[in-house]
């Protein structure tokens, strides 16, 4: 067997022995079948406000319940879906499913969680992207302020004039906007200050080991002060230890997500997890 159970509970392939490499055609046809057969599922990872210790949002992260290979991480299929264009259809499914789930949490628990949704460049560049988002919000009865779109630096720093118009339209609707993996791409500060961005998500490569890698702490402090001066908030990704969390707080990060709080979990586990978190806080 060319696979082992990884630390996330995913089936992880031993490099070179993956069933899908180099056979991209069969991955493409299996992805189409996965859409038809409803094999995708969203897991959700809590985002915590460091000042109040409250759960303020969850990030939706796609997984594939593969009929033969078990639960597959997005790193195994999102890059291919981006190359062959299937990401557009998958992205629409993600948006609709995340909104449907958000609606269910509101109805059943009066929960006011913000749901963050990852958007690929190709999805964002569809001429009808804003229309699609609006239609899905209407269809699912979700207020735009419950939703945050996570865009990457490469999306927003490309074709800036057109992008700015789209961001302004999404912002006018009341949707929250974040830049994901901030610090790993090439952001122009000149453009950044003109964009209606609410949050910068600091990439986990800067967060991990921040307690003993001085350069990481310098970078996180610099991003935080830049963000705050531009009236943006900062979310630290990938916090795993007490020591990292302490430094993130000292750096004035607004929110954090990471294994220290919780791994991404199935939708049904989210409300019980939030309740347990609130109980623990009250102790
Ligand atoms: P991302 O958006 O930057 O998501 C954060 C990734 O870091 C997730 O991996 C999450 O499980 C992982 N993570 C969170 N906390 C920790 C931690 O403390 N330690 C470590 N080592 N990892 C942590 P995941 O779920 O495998 O997703 C990987 C990437 O796949 C995402 O990175 C995103 O770029 C992409 N992706 C996931 N879901 C979607 C989706 O619905 N649409 C699109 N277009 N891309 C998606
Ligand atoms: Mg993300
Ligand atoms: Mg990220
Ligand atoms: Mg990432």
From TrEMBL:
- In this chain the EAL domain maps to 24-278
Q: Give the reaction(s) catalysed.
A: 3',3'-c-di-GMP + H2O = 5'-phosphoguanylyl(3'->5')guanosine + H(+)
What GO annotations for molecular function exist for this entry? cyclic-guanylate-specific phosphodiesterase activity
A GO biological process this protein is involved in?
cellular response to nitric oxide
Record protein name field: Diguanylate cyclase/phosphodiesterase
Q: Which organism is it from?
A: Sulfuriferula multivorans
The shown residues of the full protein are 278 to 560 of 560
